[in-house]
Design brief:
single chain; alpha/beta; three-stranded antiparallel β-sheet; 25% strand
Length: 236
């Protein structure tokens, strides 16, 4: 069942096209990786999906019940990495939009946050300062925070950026578990093409010239996009 339908989406900045006539769909339970060169519009597309950027033409249709159940993990900035709060406080802040004018988190919020700490294996560091954690630990905390906002869809913008190889493998293992065991639909911007093909069931490749490929991972491997870009990463 389609939960997101993107039809003929076009976005331009200062009359320079970033996305042009882009069409793709996301089904419940999909794991979609968005890949492509720098400047090809990947982060712009994520912002369109979140409703932060309005397209010039075309449209995105999102299942009505989905919009309030999206967990978003943006690219980390230096300020975010140095955020002065405990792990539990950061995870709990995933419920900010659920407070509805209340000043304090409910018992249910706190129990859910503890559940997410357990799910991501970070219960033992819940009282540690977020700023003292390794990059891999910080990503686990931010994933737990994002999961407090959703039961259905995670949007991730280059979550592996700045992580060492072991942390990247751990990240992909965690996402695989969320998708396959918990049924979370995942849309992730990634620079790791081989990992994308290995882990995702669908790939959206955006080209610098506004061309694109959308299809299954198997179809991507056989496509001109896949042959061109995967060829240079075979030994990664």
């Amino acid at each position: 069942m389609n939960i997101i339908i993107c039809e003929n989406l076009s976005v331009a900045f200062s009359k320079t096209p970033v996305l042009k006539d882009l069409s793709f769909t996301v089904d419940e339970g999909d794991y979609l990786c968005i890949v492509g060169e720098n400047g090809s519009g990947k982060s712009t597309l994520i912002k369109c999906l979140l409703g932060l950027i309005a397209p010039d033409t075309g449209h995105i249709v999102t299942e009505k019940s989905l919009f309030n159940h999206i967990g978003y993990l943006p690219q980390q900035t230096t300020i975010q990495k140095d955020f002065p709060a405990t792990v539990f406080e950061v995870v709990l802040s995933g419920f900010l939009n659920d407070l509805n004018g209340r000043l304090f988190y409910t018992k249910a919020h706190k129990e859910k946050a503890k559940e997410m700490l357990s799910l991501f294996g970070i219960s033992d560091i819940k009282n540690k300062s977020y700023r003292t954690l390794s990059g891999g630990q910080q990503q686990r905390v931010l994933l737990a925070r994002a999961m407090c906002s959703t039961k259905r869809l995670l949007l991730l913008d280059e979550p592996e950026a700045g992580l060492d190889p072991l942390a990247v493998r751990d990240l992909y293992a965690t996402l695989r578990k969320l998708n396959r065991e918990h049924g979370i639909t995942i849309i992730m911007v990634s620079h790791s093409l081989n990992e994308a093909v290995r882990e995702a069931n669908k790939v959206l490749h955006l080209g610098e010239d506004c061309s694109f490929f959308f299809g299954t991972s198997k179809e991507y491997e056989k496509s001109e996009f896949g042959k061109r870009f995967l060829g240079g990463q075979k030994n990664d």
